[in-house]
Amino acid sequence: MAEEILVPFIVFGSFAISFLGWLYFKHKGRVETQQTIRLALEKGNEMTPELIRQLGTPEPGRDRDLRSALIWYALALGLVLIGFALQEAEALRGLLAGAALPFSIGSAYMIMYAYGAKKAS
């Protein structure tokens, strides 16, 4: 009985802790950026809008969509391989259906990568 309650709490608790950690470090980075800008202004350095933009948020790389597509494709492939490893028709069908969503998302990222590469050149 205790295991039935404890396992979901641990699973969802780990998701919550990961999300809160991500929020904390994102906030910490923004605070450090503000302190850097404030220190530079107090010392009399001129801050151009381009410099502030570079300090604030880095521009995403060209291959970000490609990396995201590969991650989603790997997730879909992993689900398919698990389905084949179980050697049950129902499990295979269910996991193939579950793999369709990450495969579709990966395909969308691949299309955005191809469109962005074409647009950049």
Describe the structure in your own words:
There is one protein chain. This protein is mainly α and 121 residues long. 86% of the residues lie in helices and 0% in strands. The protein has 2 domains: 1-59; 60-121. It contains 4 helices and no strands. The chain is flat.
Number of strands: 0
Number of domains: 2
What is the 3D form? flat
- Rounded to the nearest angstrom, the radius of gyration is 22 Å
* Main beta sheet strand tally, sense and closure: none
- The amount of helix comes to over 70%
Model regions low in confidence, pLDDT < 50 over at least 5 residues: none
Percentage beta strand: under 5%
* SSE string: HHHH
Number of helices: 4
Helix/strand-derived category reads mainly alpha
Give me the oligomer status.
single chain
From the N-terminal CA to the C-terminal CA, the straight-line distance is 61 Å
Mean pLDDT, all residues? 88
